[in-house]
Amino acid sequence: MRLDPIDPALAAPIVIRDERSGDDWHPEYPFADELAPLRSLASHEAVDPVFTLYAIRDDDGVAVGGFGFFGPPDETGTVEFGYGLVPAARGRGLASAAVAEGLRIAAGHGAVRAIADTDEANLASLAVLARAGMSEIRREGGTVYVARDL
Fold this sequence. Notes:
alpha+beta, 7-stranded mixed β-sheet, 7 strands, 29% helix
């Protein structure tokens, strides 16, 4: 598994699924939840090269999901992230590997704390976050909020 940063020039073709040689996107990529962040990224000329969106690529190099930061760390050093995989790529450890790598990237670039959230019914995501060392900080309206010092 590897995370490949997505810049605005790449985000636009992903949104409209204008796949070129070497892009190697899974047929279900991008999934619906990724379209809004990709559209937002595509509309910017310059973005933070680290705290951005990343394509999650499997061992064959196929883009099967996304990992993304909701911006650079805030004034406390906290960074928020999210992730997701196309259904065909789930259950293979890719999400756990992507979250671990994303947290490593964040810590290596000055973040001191990471936060995320998931639906309380999403047991697979809760397990991924727990494996990454994230601890529940609260539940509200069906959402579980987690955090971890980096």
